[in-house]
């Protein structure tokens, strides 16, 4: 006899998605058990960090529903949408002094986080490389002035310093769920392995469970940082491009802390901050690179992004 919808719902259990690969996800139960679950239908809508209701079936399960999300971080280009994770407290964007980081990549990640309502943090690695680090630290001065928290790291020190992360890093992670983003060469794997020494073992177990083999390196994974399970890290694939096609170019300026205070001074409510007379934003750029003003470089990043996002909309 087939179960009614009410009976099926009663049989469902709560779970947390801690890894995913294709239509297969690994769900952790409140008791700490890990169960392979499959999506109903042809396409999985679940991402790491989702709270779900799942229905047991022999030694596996089926995702019946995804509970409402607090937020979802994703990127989107003209071809596809890539979701990173859901229900985040913050995003730690890891960059390195060498190779020189891309300010465009950093800006895109910051915009995506703020558009999703997620607190972004910046961590600059390789503080032991003194000259490159000094140049990178100066490059980040406008971001510190905007109010972004910027941490200094030396994950593989070359001058005898104590390896970091330091207590400062652990303090910003405590009692939060943090997604770590970083391009290749930033030291993301090193950071994960320092914070979670058993990460490689756990990754191997997840790979075996999901039968994903070599593809595990491109999967997003959740790790608990303590036995009490109140602090979590989510490791995501590295990225070289960060599409923002899901953002409206007219809202870009509101997501940029150095632009936002000056928008109210614009003569027109629908000002693009590119050519209109009486633009409060452009007035601050033209005033020069003074403290509290908009740097010419940041304005160039904005105008380039505006043009890119407008191509497919207008």
Written account of the structure:
Strand 4 and strand 5 form a beta hairpin. The chain has helices spanning 5-11, 103-115, 130-139, 141-145, 167-173, 188-195, 199-210, 280-286, 296-310, and strands at 13-21, 24-28, 34-39, 51-57, 60-66, 72-76, 81-86, 90-96, 119-125, 150-152, 177-181, 221-224, 232-235. The protein is built from nine helices and 13 strands. The chain is an alpha/beta fold and 314 residues long. The longest helix has 15 residues, at 296-310. The chain has a six-stranded mixed β-sheet, with helices on both faces.
List low-confidence stretches. Answer: 213-218
Return the average pLDDT rounded to an integer.
87
Write down the Rg. 22 Å
Q: Per CATH, what is the topology of the largest domain?
A: Rossmann fold
Label the CATH architecture of the largest domain: 3-Layer(aba) Sandwich
Q: What separation lies between the terminal Cα atoms?
A: 55 Å
Tell me the name of the CATH homologous superfamily of the largest domain: P-loop containing nucleotide triphosphate hydrolases
> Which CATH top level class of the largest domain fits?
Alpha Beta
**Structural class given helices, strands, pairing?**
alpha/beta
H/E element order: HEEEEEEEEHEHHEHEHHEEHH
Q: Order of strands across the widest beta sheet?
A: 10-9-8-11-13-12
Strand content: 15-25%
Query: Total number of β-strand segments?
Result: 13
Which key features would you list for this structure?
5-stranded mixed barrel; globular; 6-stranded mixed sheet; 27% helix; alpha/beta; OB fold (Dihydrolipoamide Acetyltransferase, E2P); 314 residues
